[in-house]
C-alpha cells in the first residue's frame, strides 16, 4: 500500500493540488476579484519563508527571522535570501489582497 507521508506520491499530490487551486484562482481572478488569488500567493510565500526559516534553524541553531534572512543572503546564503524575499512578498500579497476586496 502506498503512503503519502514523506513519499513521492505525497509530494506529487500536494503539488498537483496546488497547481489545480492556482489555475482555479487565476480563472476566478480574471472574471471576478483578484483578492483570493493574491491571498493564495501570500500563503504560498509564507509557507516558503517558514520552510527556509526551519532550514536556517538547522544551520544556525536558532530560528532566523525574515529581516535577518536578507542579511544572511547578502553574505552568500542564497536560500536565506530567497526566504527573506518570500517573507516580504507575503506582506505585499496580503496587502494587495486587502485592498482588492
Number of separate helices = 4
Q: Estimate the mean pLDDT confidence.
A: 89
Low-pLDDT segments = none
Q: What is the H/E string?
A: HHHH
Alpha-beta classification: mainly alpha
Q: What separation lies between the terminal Cα atoms?
A: 45 Å
Radius of gyration: 16 Å
Helix content: over 70%
Query: What composes the largest sheet?
Result: none
> What is the count of β-strands?
0
User: Strand-residue fraction?
Assistant: under 5%
The global form is flat
Describe what this molecule looks like in 3D.
The chain is mainly α. Helix content is 81%, strand content 0%. The protein has four helices and no strands. It has helices at 8-31, 35-60, 66-74, 78-100. It is flat.
Brief sketch in words of this structure:
The chain has 101 residues and is an all-alpha fold. The protein is built from 4 helices and no strands.
